[in-house]
Specification:
By secondary structure, the protein is of the alpha/beta class. It has 14 helices and nine strands.
């Protein structure tokens, strides 16, 4: 696919529109565990990506992949058609969006701001309202699939916002993920993401309890997990985390610290709408206890360590 401007047979038509396949210019803010591979997938698909983040080595990685590093947030977003943010939590989204050096003051009117961070639904609603005053369109588009999903471009992307803006962003989402769904107006993407994090945490906890039970019973753990994963107990969580459990490998694909933040979001949002989360509340406390014991930087499959401590086995 060529990404040319104008048409070769109309040299004296300077006002000729871009061809339909001219891709929007992207500004990418936040190049962490998820942001770096996601931005690289867009570069690989032919998008012009300018990135900004706080760590120089991550800017160097972007440059090596063919992107353009920007030394300031304002510089990154000034000429962008689409601005994508992928930062840890609501305070960081607010920090990059608002203020004289932020996105809303420096992006051009008509730009599309896509926040792919996992934040509170209310933060997304407030951001969309503030951006509207500046003529900037907003989508909340959190993702599920972890680092592996980001690298392999098979993320699930849950989106909140206007249908027209979702339609405009869809080609870009399809570079990053496999399941792309608009879930409703602003904030709905974040609400679905909160439900996702509830299911994932409870699922990991159930797997961790099963692992300790199996090992204490003297069963061949690898064989047991294989057969369990082939039946109704099977899940994407078990498929993705089986090797973490078997090898006690807790190198973070998704840190306990971030899942702790997400359990706070879903607990608070559920209380606001009057939904009871009895099992979710217990797992939220187990995640919090793991973090309090110094395991916040480990992968969320390290919930296994909490079960082992409770069961008096090795940690």
């Amino acid at each position: 696919m060529s990404h040319t401007h104008g048409t070769p047979d109309a040299p004296d038509a300077p006002d000729a529109p871009d061809t339909p396949d001219t891709l929007p210019r992207i500004a990418w803010i936040g190049l962490g565990i998820m942001g770096s591979p996601m931005s690289e997938n867009l570069i690989g698909a032919g998008y012009d990506v300018t990135g900004h983040t706080l760590e120089q080595e991550k800017l160097d990685r972007l440059a090596a992949a063919g992107g353009t590093p920007a030394s300031s947030l304002a510089g990154a977003v000034r000429d962008a058609d689409v601005i994508i943010t992928m930062v840890p939590a609501s305070p960081q989204v607010e920090a990059v969006a608002y203020g004289p050096d932020g996105i809303l003051e420096n992006a051009r009117p008509g730009a599309l701001l896509i926040d792919m961070s996992s934040i509170t639904p209310q933060t997304s609603v407030d951001l969309a309202a503030a951006a509207k005053d500046k003529g900037i369109r907003v989508l909340d588009a959190p993702v599920s699939g972890g680092e592996a999903g980001a690298v392999e471009a098979v993320l699930s992307i849950m989106v909140g916002g206007e249908q027209a803006d979702f339609d405009a962003a869809k080609p870009l989402f399809e570079v990053l993920g496999r399941t792309v769904v608009r879930c409703g107006p602003h904030g709905c993407g974040q609400t679905v993401k909160a439900a996702n994090q509830l299911i994932v945490a409870v699922n990991i906890q159930a797997c961790a309890e099963a692992v300790v039970f199996l090992e204490k019973s003297g069963v061949d753990l690898a064989a047991a997990l294989d057969v369990l994963n082939g039946g109704l107990a099977g899940s994407t969580v078990l498929t993705r985390k089986k090797d973490n459990f078997l090898g006690r490998d807790f190198e973070p694909g998704f840190r306990i610290d971030l899942h702790h933040k997400d359990m706070g979001i879903v607990t608070d949002a559920a209380r606001t709408v009057g939904a009871a989360l009895p099992v979710g509340a217990v797992v939220a406390q187990l995640v919090a206890s793991l973090r309090a014991q110094g395991d916040g930087g480990l992968d969320h499959s390290a919930l296994l360590r909490a079960v082992e401590r409770l069961s008096g086995t090795r940690v």
